[in-house]
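Customer escalation, tier 2.

The customer says the design service returned an amino acid string that "doesn't look like it belongs to this structure." They asked us to rerun it and document both sides in this ticket. The original structure tokens are below, unchanged.
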């Protein structure tokens, strides 16, 4: 028995989760029971992580102790720094560096590994290896992590070598919370598949980073930023969109497999970007992006009246991350920094009631071939 073929597993339910609920028709995202609109701008990343792991918010003492535990794992082993430095020296893509760096987190284990300690290690070390890669690419020495800073603040500190102001930290935290989890997306499914074999959480996160690297999943916000720079220089943004679509290109930052309406994360990130850019020199960039969004949605509707192509998460991701000072080439690694919370929470959830994930393939190859020795072929 082979069952129905379902390419891409579209519409197939293979797990139960309490971590996030995605409603593609209503345009709703609920994380750990909270509407995204409420959680993302209010929580620190540590609170969101605790929520995903424990299914409740921490009280003040629990939060302080959780933050301390997470921060105690920030220092990456020297071999991880060597690997990301080698990747930078040889011009490898950022996500290759991050994959090698986070894989080396196994070397930082002290004592017996558990899904919980591996989760904290992976989450804590992703920003360290991403920042060390970036600094190596700019011929700068890595900056030691600081245990007194929040997760987002420490990441910015390791990138710049200076303590960031609170507005940048809040902007980044809102981003991290907005993309921390999103149902059974490709990288999360990868992580669950790996851990379901009773492998380990660091292996699962390493595989998930590999899945996130692909342009169909985590690679869109960099090209969105490039497009926005083109738009600012263009005489008529609508012409630019027509040109791209007529050339058969896809407009980055628009369209989504699940959402039939505007991605709810776009609204949360737009509001965060608006707060961030207000009164700043670059506020014209935010205004241009917002105007362009309207133009792009109209042209897409005109070009493809048969489809609903609305703004997705990546459009305002590019706007917000650019504002808070994340370099373009670190947009996807920063997505990994955020999503590591979801990956590790899914691993732990999978292990609570584990069953190996093993779908089938429908065989379409040859039958009945006769073997001939190599000398006779
Ligand atoms: N611009 C122009 N045309 C588009 C776009 C777009 N942004 N998105 C989809 N289409 C068209 C496709 O060309 C295709 O047309 P066809 O039927 O004539 O071949 C049709 O819509 C369906 O496309 P699929 O790829 O089958 O639809 P799917 O729902 O799987 O696509 C995806 C989702 C991959 C996000 C797509 O909308 C896309 O490529 N968008 C641009 C890239 C992007 O922004 N990616 C980030 C997504 S958010 C995330 O995953 C984190």
């Amino acid at each position: 028995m082979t069952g129905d073929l379902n390419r891409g597993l579209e519409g197939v339910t293979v797990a139960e989760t309490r971590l996030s609920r995605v409603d593609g028709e209503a345009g709703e995202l609920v994380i750990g029971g909270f509407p995204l609109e409420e959680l993302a701008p209010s929580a620190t990343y540590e609170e969101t992580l605790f929520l995903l792991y424990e299914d409740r918010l921490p009280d003040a003492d629990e939060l302080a102790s959780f933050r301390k535990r997470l921060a105690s794992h920030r220092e990456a082993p020297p071999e991880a720094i060597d690997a990301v430095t080698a990747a930078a020296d040889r011009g490898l893509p950022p996500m290759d560096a991050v994959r090698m760096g986070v894989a080396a987190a196994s070397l930082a284990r002290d004592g017996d590994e558990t899904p919980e300690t591996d989760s904290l290690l992976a989450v804590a070390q992703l920003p360290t290896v991403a920042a060390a890669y970036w600094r190596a690419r700019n011929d700068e020495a890595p900056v030691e992590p600081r245990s007194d800073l929040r997760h987002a603040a420490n990441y910015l500190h390791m990138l710049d070598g200076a303590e960031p102001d609170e507005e940048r930290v809040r902007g980044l935290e809102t981003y991290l919370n907005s993309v921390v989890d999103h149902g059974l997306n490709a990288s999360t499914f990868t992580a669950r598949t790996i851990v379901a074999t009773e492998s380990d959480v660091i292996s699962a996160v390493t595989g998930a980073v590999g899945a996130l690297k692909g342009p169909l999943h985590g690679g869109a916000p960099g090209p969105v930023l490039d497009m926005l720079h083109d738009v600012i220089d263009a005489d008529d943004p609508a012409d630019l969109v027509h040109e791209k679509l007529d050339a058969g290109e896809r407009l980055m930052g628009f369209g989504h497999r699940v959402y039939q309406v505007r991605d709810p994360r776009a609204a949360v990130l737009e509001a965060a970007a608006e707060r961030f850019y207000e009164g700043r020199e670059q506020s014209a960039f935010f205004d241009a992006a917002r105007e362009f969004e309207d133009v792009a949605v109209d042209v897409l509707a005109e070009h493809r009246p048969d489809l609903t192509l609305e703004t997705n998460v990546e459009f305002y991701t590019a706007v917000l991350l650019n504002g808070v000072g994340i370099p373009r080439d670190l947009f996807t690694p920063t997505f990994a920094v955020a999503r590591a919370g979801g990956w590790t929470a899914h691993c732990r959830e999978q292990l609570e009631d584990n069953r190996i994930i093993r779908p089938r393939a429908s065989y379409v190859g040859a039958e009945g071939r006769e073997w001939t020795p190599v000398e006779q072929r």
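Tier 2 assessment: The sequence is consistent with the input. The longest helix spans residues 115-137. The beta strands are 20-23, 28-31, 34-35. Sent an explanation to the customer and offered a walkthrough call.
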